[in-house]
Amino acid sequence: MDMAQTRLSMIICCVAICLLNAHKVHSEKLPIVLWHGMGDTCCFPFSLGGVRKFLESEIGVYVKSVEIGNSIAEDFKSGYLVHPNQQIEMVCAELSNDAKLNNGFNAIGFSQGGQFLRGLVQRCPTVRINNLITLGGQHQGVFGLPNCPSLSSRTCERFRQLLNYAAYTELMQNFLVQATYWHDPLNEEKYKNSSSFLADINNERFINQSYVENLQKLNKFIMVQFNKDTIVQPLESQWFGYYKPGQDKETQGLKETELFIEDRLGLKKMDNENKLVFLQCEGNHLQFTKEWLRENLFIYLT
């Protein structure tokens, strides 16, 4: 074999190896990151701890369930008392330093963990999220707190009163997580000017172009709405819909909102590129079965 033939054989061999490696990388399943909601923790066996084990068993990948703080107790309290901005900053650093996530991952946010994960996508360019799934996430916020998981009715009522009368005070915005995504449709200007979290990640005061660009990097943004939800008010918030401004009776879908029409987050562009997926699940807040999970979400996780 002459020199030219040898060189050609080497080139063909290198190309074949590169193609095989590319196929291997493409076919490898990505890890999964979970972020719990209000009244939950990373690891309760009857909630996210069980979900983590189920996904590890069924899909066979590394699954990380985000824990805020150094204990289950601290993690539980974080859902009420650690500001989302602080949580996102902490989780950004933690996930960025996890070598198992270096090649990217899929993410699932449960209830308020959904908008926290979206905030992470927009604010933390050092992580690579492929598909973002939000289950019952309050993307346009809430106006009402009808049920509080894991809390007594007396405590729940106290939270309602605080939010109804003092949600936009500096004290409440710094003290209570739920105040940071309390969205009063009867006073849109006060909400936009005072919200210390949601109005910012929704680009409602000014357009942060990095938020738009980072959100566009998602392969798919999957939003799951629970059709009989008694916790998220209005339930359309789970699909980025909300009450029509100035009243709290009639709702509008995402495409009717200023957020979409003005494309303040780039959601119109994502919709045109078929990156937005809207799924429904019958039942109350976060009530889904393993079968539903397999049939509807595994396609975005494998």
TrEMBL record:
What is the protein's given name?
Palmitoyl-protein thioesterase 1
Family annotation (SUPFAM superfamilies): alpha/beta-Hydrolases (SSF53474)
Q: Say which family it is in.
A: Belongs to the palmitoyl-protein thioesterase family.
| GO molecular function, a single term | palmitoyl-(protein) hydrolase activity
One Pfam family name is Palm_thioest
**Broad class of enzyme this protein falls into:** hydrolase
What do the Gene Ontology cellular component annotations say? lysosome
Q: Where is the signal peptide?
A: 1-27
For the biological process aspect of GO, one term held by this record is:
receptor-mediated endocytosis
Per its UniProt entry, which superkingdom is the organism in? Eukaryota
Instruction: Write down the EC number.
Output: 3.1.2.22
**What keywords would UniProt list here?**
Disulfide bond, Glycoprotein, Hydrolase, Signal
**Gene3D superfamilies cross-referenced by the UniProt entry:** alpha/beta hydrolase
